[in-house]
Amino acid sequence: MEKLSLVLPETPPYFPWQFVRCAVIGNLGDLLKTRFGKEIDAYNVVIRESGAPIQNYVEYVGKKSTLWLLNRGSAKALDKVVELDEERWEVLIVKTTIHDIMNKMISGSSN
């Protein structure tokens, strides 16, 4: 429990905020057929799925991220798939059924 407290905030980061508009962005290649980056970034909340890269695709998928939904595979390579910005709040939600992977992530965290 001590290690888990190192990675969890003391208070919910977005409580009691309510958001008017929300964009949920997957990792489909079809997003590269459009240039919705500015439109996506205009939403109050942007939820990104599976750690799809955004750095080289900003004009297509935007750069704003509020929540990241990660599966076990994405969480294993967290440093490669998620580009966290230290200047803003971003929340990671990791779905895993294998506890040893989550424990390794927590024990490897410096914060």
From TrEMBL:
Main location: Golgi
Organism: Rubroshorea leprosula
Family: Belongs to the glycosyltransferase 29 family.
The protein, known as: Uncharacterized protein
Pfam families: Glyco_transf_29 (PF00777)
GO annotation, cellular component aspect: Golgi membrane
GO molecular function: sialyltransferase activity
UniProt KW Flavoprotein keyword: no
Top-level taxon: Eukaryota
High-level lineage: Eukaryota, Viridiplantae, Streptophyta, Embryophyta, Tracheophyta
UniProt entry keywords in alphabetical sequence: Glycoprotein, Glycosyltransferase, Golgi apparatus, Membrane, Signal-anchor, Transferase, Transmembrane, Transmembrane helix
Membrane topology per record: Single-pass type II membrane protein
PANTHER family assigned to the protein according to its UniProt record, in alphabetical order: SIALYLTRANSFERASE-LIKE PROTEIN 2
Compartment(s): Golgi apparatus membrane
